[in-house]
Amino acid sequence: MTQENKKRPRKKGRKRKGPGYFSLKRLSVFAVLFLVLIVSICTLGYVIFFRTVFAQEILPALRSAIVFEEPNPPVQFEPADPAEHVGRATEPTAPVESSTEPADRGESTESVAKDVPARPPDLPKVAIIIDDMGHDETTGRKLLSLPIELTYSFLPFAPHTQKLENLAHAAGKTIFLHLPMQPKGAAYSPGPGALYLQDSPEMQRIKLKKCLQEVPHAIGVNNHMGSSFTEDEGAMANIVKEIKDRSLIFVDSVTSPASVAFQVARAASVKSARRNVFLDNIQDEQKICDQLEKLVEIAEKKGRAIGIAHPYRATVNAMAICSEQYQARVHYVGVPEVLAVR
What we know:
By secondary structure, the chain is α/β, with parallel strands linked by helices. The protein has helices at residues 19-62, 110-115, 137-144, 161-170, 201-214, 233-245, 261-267, 285-302, 313-322, 335-339, and strands spanning 125-133, 151-154, 174-181, 220-225, 249-252, 272-274, 277-278, 304-309, 331-333. The chain folds into 2 domains: 23-65; 69-339, TIM Barrel (Alpha-Beta Barrel), CATH 3.20.20.370. It is built from 10 helices and 9 strands. Strands 1, 2, 3, 4, 5, 6, 7, 8 and 9 form a 9-stranded parallel β-sheet that branches. α7 (261-267) links the parallel β5 (249-252) and β6 (272-274).
C-alpha cells in the first residue's frame, strides 16, 4: 500500500454549524436592535412630551401647588401681640431705635398715587410681604403691577430673582432678602444658600453675605422656612449681628411657635417685627380674602400689622379683588413705614 493510498487522518476542527444556530443568532441580534429602537423612541417621546406638552400645559397649573413655605404654626401659637415692633412707644420695655423714619425706598409708586384717593393719614397701616419672589416670572410681574404698596422678598439664586428684583427696584418697591434657613425634618428643602445649624458661625455669615449679593437692593431680611434655625438663640444672634452691621430691617416670619428670632433682633436693637398672618396657606381666593380681613382687623386694633403672601395665582386674583375694599380702613405701606408707627 502506497503512502498516497493511505487514509489521511481527519483534522480535528470545529463542527459545522447547522441552520438552527444561525437562526438563533440572527434572532438575538434582531431582538437587541429592536430593543434599542424602542428605547430610542421612548426617550425621544419623553423629551418631546416634557419639553413641550408637559412644560407648557401642565406645569403652569401646578406652580400654585409648589410648597415654598412651611405650614403656618397652630393658631394658638400666634404671637400674643402680633404687631410687636422695636421702637413701639406703647411698649416701654422695647428698645427705642435712634432712627425710625421710613426708608427712602418703599414709598407708593406713581400708579398707586393715581389709583388711590386721598385718605386720612392716621389710618391703621398694613404691610404685606410677598415671599418667594424669583421662581415664577409671570406671577411675579403681576404682583409687581398690583395697585397697592407691597414689600417683595426675593429668594437668592432663584432663576428670575435678578430680573424681577431690578424691576422692583426701578419701580421704587420695598425689597427684602428672603433668607433660606434650616427647617425641621427633611420634608422641606430651603433651597440654595440656606443657613444650617451645623454650619460654623463664620460659614453662616458667609452664606448670608452671598445671599445679600444676590438681592443687592434689599433693605431688610425675613426668614424662608427656618423652623429649626430660628429656635436657636446662638445662631440667630450670629445672623442678627451681620444684619445690624448692615443697618437692615429684620422680620420674623414665625414659621415656628418657638421662634426666638424676633426677640434676639429686638435685644440687639435691630429694627424688627414679626409676621401676623399668613394670607394664602389655603390657595383659595375667598380664603385669602378672609385672611386679609383678619389682617385688617389686627391693624385696626394695634395700629399696624404685617401679613405674608406668596406668588400664587390665587393670591394675585384675591389681592386684585379684595384689597381695594379695605383702602378706606387701612393704608397699605412698605414694612419700613409699619416699623415707624408710633
